[in-house]
Amino acid sequence: MHLADGVLNTPAVVATSVAAGALIINSIRNIDNEEIPKISIMAAAFFVFGLMSYPAGPSTVHPLLGGLLGIMLGWRSPLAVFIGLLLHAAIFQHGGFTTIGINTLIVAIPAIIGHLFFKSAMKKDRSISISAGITAALSVALTVVILLTVLAMVNENYKEIIYILGIGHIPLLIAEGVLTGIVVKFLNDTRPEILSQYNIKKQV
Hints:
By secondary structure, the chain is mainly alpha-helical. The chain is 68% helix and 3% strand.
């Protein structure tokens, strides 16, 4: 998400920045050197995909990868999201520096929830591809809900585009669900150690 500078008032900027900072600090704690390459790759993927967009009424919609971030990184996902958003703001002026806290929360919270959902599904021996697809769709839906709630709270004028943005994210929800399901199934078949934290049993 790329909410621009000026959308939030000062108290909201401070509160969301503190909350995002707490998530990021937690994601850095006890980090292993072996995890850094995976975090870097996912941060790069989030950065690149976040630059793609398609029009949705007066605004645009871009890939989020929240579900895939959550599955791959779990509680480390806020770090990758923050890095990607920081680079978006610094290099391309997408979003803003004062709103990087809320933008991080909008993507990172659904990613973490997606991680917990996928972890629960794997404990119940659910289908990997279907569970991953649902995780991604759930992450997109939660991101949109949080975003639209924030927009409705900060400016009543945004209510006019809420429905357009909501509908505009439906194709993204489907696309990310399918893509994430395929990617996670492929990784589990070819590099199962990447998903070792879930103790996934061999599936046909």
